[in-house]
Amino acid sequence: AASEAPATVVAPRPARTLRALRVRRTPGIADAFALDALSPGVNVVFGPNGIGKSSAARAIEALLWDGVGGDALEAEGDATLHGAPLRLVVARGRRRAEREGVPCAP
Can you give the pTM of this predicted structure? Predict the structure, then answer.
């Protein structure tokens, strides 16, 4: 009888949910903008060219991962990690996080 390979157990990653995004500065977009009241699931952002859809995606990527965004992007986001509030900030090519105003690991 053929034997089955043992199942691989993958540890779950922390549940991080972005609730709001504020982009203060990004190349190609003159004015700051915000996406408020994001849902914990899939969000759809649509509109005409040049309103910041791709810039919003780049800002989200920079908030979540180190080394993304460059010096020209400044953004912040309100998130939750395991249900606890978390503020994410990217500015001058650096990413940081705060919980209740206290710096913490992103």
Answer: 0.80
